[in-house]
Amino acid sequence: MNSKVSYTENELSAIAISSAIKVHRSVGPGLLESVYKECLFYELNKNNIHVEKEKPLPLVYETVKLDCGYRADIILENKLVLELKSVESLSDIHAAQTLTYLRLSGCKLALLINFNVLLLKDGLKRIINGKL
């Protein structure tokens, strides 16, 4: 779906967080990541936003474009990367993975979201321009 409105990264972030909270309140913690991804994808599509799920992100090594299987969970408007997890706690490797997706996608902002928490705000990490 193509959007008719141009959103800023911060506006997209607010929409994504609101949608993620709605999904989390509806289905609760403790499910597989794929469940949250499908529910969030559905919820975001209702907002007239360009949403891509499992978007391939090729890696350029030296001068060669390699399809290494990198896939961003969700990208909004080619501006915001959403990396979803359902883990006991977020670790440095999850942040590093998100930084890689941010760099490969060319986006400036990412949200790392862990749905396996009692309150979703405790599972949110905002990553801006490659910085934690």
What is the helical fraction, as a range of percent? 25-40%
What share of residues are in beta strands? 25-35%
Number of domains: 1
Distance between the termini: 31 Å
SSE topology string: HHEEEEEHEE
CATH architecture: 3-Layer(aba) Sandwich
Please provide a written account of the structure.
This protein is of the alpha+beta class. It is built from 3 helices and 7 strands. It has helices spanning 9-27, 33-45, 92-105; strands spanning 51-56, 59-61, 64-66, 71-76, 80-85, 109-114, 124-128. The model has no long low-confidence stretch (mean pLDDT 92).
Question: Descriptors for this entry?
Answer:
132 residues, alpha+beta, Trna Endonuclease, Chain: A, domain 1, 5-stranded mixed beta sheet, two-stranded antiparallel ribbon, 3 helices
What is this structure, in a nutshell?
By secondary structure, this protein is α+β, with helices and mostly antiparallel strands.
Secondary structure topology:
Layout: H1 9-27, H2 33-45, E1 51-56, E2 59-61, E3 64-66, E4 71-76, E5 80-85, H3 92-105, E6 109-114, E7 124-128
Parallel strand pairs: 5-6
Antiparallel strand pairs: 1-4, 2-3, 4-5, 6-7
